[in-house]
Amino acid sequence: MKKIGVVGIPGGWSTLRLLDALESRTGYRLCIDMAEVRLDLETGKAFYQGTDLTSLDGLIVKKIAPSYTPDALDRMEILRFLRSGGLPVFSDPDSMFRLIDRLSGTAVLRRGGIPMPPTEITEDVDEAAAVVARFGRAVFKPLYSSKARGMTVIEDGPEAHEEIADYQAAGNRVMYIQKMVSHAGGHLDLGVSFLGGEYLATYARQGSGNSWDTTTRTGGRYVPHTPSTEIIDLAHKAQSLFPGMAFTCVDVVETPSGAAIYEVSAFGGFRGLLDACGIDAAAVYADYVLENIR
User: Fold this and answer.
1) Cα angle value 192/196/202 (rounded, 5°)
2) What is the pLDDT along the chain (294 residues), one digit of tens a residue?
3) Residue-range definition of the domain harbouring residue 88
4) Measuring CA to CA, which residue among 194, 254, 247 is closest to residue 228?
């Protein structure tokens, strides 16, 4: 019997689905809250509620924390340490580490030649105001966030400088500023999903029309979508820049001037694949991990 632990959020929907899938296949169930993990650097072991994690056959990281913060990087360091000692971890903590920090992930994508909406970074409010003036309308994105949490749209105008200063004062010292791009063919963002580096399926997030973003948090919904070969190839190239990503989703936007990538997900989402495509991602992910551990 293989013993696979799931790093996730106790009671979280996707964490529970993955736990159920693994238990049905192995008879073993362990949800690991990283807030309660103790790492012993002397022995190289880590413990969670009395369980030595290095005694397991592997770990799947479904969610490192309820929300992204720099603290999540410290948790990821523990997983990097365990993997370097021989414990199989899915996905590779080195790649997940770079994807948790939006700026780090963006830098890898741009250096890899991946098209993205125009993006600029600064700590200076005056420089940020100049960027907004050039863009006309910009999305300010926290370096650590998901599902558009904490994102703000600022338009060029007499209030822009004050809005930018307020945004920075709210805890966003480094400002990640991305030009607002128009969508081609409807208010859709695509989630192009991959398992073990191979294309799995695509779902779309369709905006409600009541918000600038398409997330389900603001009323968007998941709908089926069949992308072009070009989009699949672009998303495949983007995720391949992060080796060892066992399960991930690439956020793609179709603009009048062509497809662009927003980001590659550190963990990937189960809900969109289930609701839009009828794919039980937890089940296929569990099968993939068990096969690769064997």
Assistant:
1) 15
2) 899 999 999 999 999 999 999 999 999 999 999 999 999 999 999 999 999 999 999 999 999 998 888 999 999 999 999 999 999 999 999 999 999 999 999 999 999 999 999 999 999 999 999 999 999 999 999 999 877 789 999 999 999 999 999 999 999 999 999 999 987 666 689 999 999 999 999 999 886 666 556 566 666 788 889 999 999 999 999 999 999 999 999 999 999 889 999 999 999 889 999 999 999 999 999 999 999 997
3) 4-100
4) 254
Any domain includes 108: no
- Residue 54: inside a domain, yes or no? yes
Task: Provide the residue count of the chain.
Answer: 294
The CATH number that applies at residue 231 is: 3.30.470.20
Do 212 and 151 lie in one domain? The reply is: no
Question: The domain that contains 153 carries what CATH number?
Answer: 3.30.1490.20
Q: With respect to residue 106, please indicate whether it lies within any of the assigned structural domains.
A: no
* Whether pTM exceeds 0.70: yes
Burial (Cβ within 10 Å: 0-12, 13-18, ≥19) of residue 67: middle
Cis upstream peptide for 84 (omega within 30°) = no
In a domain, 286, yes or no: no
How many structural domains does the chain have? 3
